[in-house]
Specification:
Length: 130
Amino acid sequence: LKLNLLMAHEGALPAVAVDQKEKQKPEIVLVPEPARVLEGETARFRCRVTGYPLPKVNWYLNGQLIRKSKRFRLRYDGIYYLDIVDYAAVYTCEAKNDYGVATTSASLSSIIVLNEHNEVPGDIQCHDFS
């Protein structure tokens, strides 16, 4: 941002406005909580960050950047949201700016609903540990 200051006896004098806001590394102030949902339902993680300049926030699954898709929805309204359709795993929120990086992770668990006969679906193995 450049300002031109006019002094009566000297004419135009260029001046540079100094950004007074203190530089700050990212900090995660609202961490996503571990979640459990019924199989097939949508879960939501929330993450709020501070820092200056405003950090760039990304979500990761197994180290891979999450992009918007049928399974994942990303939204921001002052809080960063990740909506997940039926994918149990550990998710990581990363906030990064020129002064640092902050990360936090949360797990999503699916609760499998047994059918009316209390049968376990064929692709799931059960073990009795008693």
